Amino acid sequence: KLTRTGGVEELFVVPTEKDAADLALAKLAKELLMTHDFDHFFIASGDGYFYEIIYKLHSAEKHITLVLYALTNRNERYRELESRLNRFHVRYLDRFLVKNVSENTMNAAS
Questions:
Q1: Which of 18, 72, 103, 105 measures 20 to 30 Å from 97, CA to CA?
Q2: Closest to 90 measured CA to CA, from 67, 74, 71
Q3: CB 89 within 8 Å of CB 64
Q4: What is the DSSP string of 4-30?
Q5: Short-list 56, 64, 59, CA closest to 30
Q6: What is the pLDDT of residue 9?
Q7: How many C-alpha atoms does 4 have within 13 Å on its Cβ side?
Q8: Edge to edge, what strands does the sheet with 40-44 contain?
Q9: pTM, two decimal places
Q10: Considering only 1-5, 13-17, 28-32, 79-83, which range has the smallest mean pLDDT?
């Protein structure tokens, strides 16, 4: 299901087979690349599935942010892209989540 909220495209996929959600997101990214003038794409995936689409987006001079839970979730293919592409950035959620959990635990204890 594709919805638009405040200029942001959101895609919700209920996987029915292996990689169904990844396939739907990759297809949408290719469509958006051809039909919209977005300059930044955010991708949340660590398994390397989006390697080709990231390369295609970068070739089209788009900025890409890969969102992962932790460094341990990063596929080696993404490590290669991170060292070679200048508009490709990786952000890790575990640093943010651990900090907030620690703060919330300390606040609850007070």
A1: 18
A2: 67
A3: yes
A4: EETTEEEE----SSTTHHHHHHHHHHH
A5: 56
A6: 62
A7: 2
A8: 40-44, 63-68, 88-92
A9: 0.68
A10: 1-5
Quick one: pLDDT band at residue 105, thresholds 50, 70, 90? low
Measure Cα distances from 79 to 15, 29, 83, 94, 100 in Å.
Answer: 27, 21, 6, 18, 27
- Tell me the residue length of the chain: 110
Kindly tell me if the per-residue pLDDT of 33 is higher than 60: yes
Whether 26 contacts 42, CB under 8 Å: no
Q: Would the pLDDT of 65 be above 90?
A: yes
Q: Which SS3 state, helix, strand or coil, does residue 107 take?
A: helix
* H or E stretch covering 38: none
- Strand residue runs (E) in the chain: 2-5, 8-11, 40-44, 63-68, 88-92
Q: Are 94 and 69 in contact (CB under 8 A)?
A: yes
Residues 80 and 29: their CA atoms lie apart, in Å, by: 21
